[in-house]
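OP here, attaching both records as promised.
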Amino acid sequence: MDGDRPFRRSFTAETDVPAFQTALREVLTVCGVALDTIQIAQLVKHYHLLGETNTYLNLTRLIGPAEAARWHYLDILAALPCFTGNMPTWWVDVGSGGGFPGLPLAVARPAWRLVLAERRAKKAAFLRRCVSELGLTGRVQVHAGEFEPGTALRVLADCGVDVSRETFGLLARAVEDGPKKLPRLLRLSPFVSAAFWLGQADAEALARQRLPGWRVHPLYHLPTGAQRVVSILTRRAD
């Protein structure tokens, strides 16, 4: 193995896809996440596409059936209880990469509409394929390019969204330098909610920042590790 490259497990669809489906059902059942047969099939299809593409495009190191079910899909879907109350139906997933957290959330929440923002063209092409093959065309769009405060509103308008009328939530998981980058996007008026998957240290660093007009909710601890949390923020009404 090349010492300069992260180890990536090989993927064999004939054995890994059925094993993933079994592992996924088990972890979701244990954690009380209820999805129907069609939704399970969509997540299994996403895993299949992820595994095949990961053989030539570095999307994730965690592609084994059990580890992917736990560290990718459960890590995201276990946070569904966070999304209650007056949440927006439009969400932007910044740095979507392999489709996390946006695609599992789009499957689990059929009423949501999403923009998956990914600056790397090859990964954006992968996301477009997933959107098509998972049957999400029409409510999930992919933006290939940066999603920064200076261009974000134009990007949303280019996706056909009326930014003068719609409100949005912001999603992010494993964003490089997230505690510094993400608060800049929160300054944009269309964003009224945010959910960030972080390690506890980064989440606490984010909470210590001055975020005028935002309420930082208590951290939501995930079943995937003692230091795995979701930080939920909502814009104050006053």
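Record two, same layout:
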Amino acid sequence: MNYRKEINDLCKEINDLLDKQDNKGMEKYGMALEQNPAGILERLQHSVEEKIDDLRYTFWAMDRLKSMWVRFPRIKFVDVNSLAEQLDHVRSEHKEVWLAFEDDKIGDLAMELFDLIHSCETALRILQESFGIDLRETLLAVIDKNKKRGYYENAGKTD
């Protein structure tokens, strides 16, 4: 990995963001930050307000990361199906995948695969909500296990 290139790319990105913020400030306030006549306490108050906004964005992102394994909305079957019933549904979706494959219906195959994933997610939600399984930690453990097995082309990335 070429870290120097990554650092250079990061410096360019930071400079681009600085330019963007300068332009935004000029449009909003009609002057550069350095020309602002506000006193130190007023500037520090602005800084505090920016940090509060940053905390809100950070907490929002953390909430999203807690459920990073989710692709589909939560459905009612999480509340009504037992784990065994949901696993039986996973099995039926798996069968539908094979039927679409055997009938050479590629468009249907893609839909059935998504149905299977959705059904598996529902089973995972049941595990999480009824049995207290930490799915984020489980997902990270699976990724780590598969990295060690050499399954990923680029073992340094998880996207």
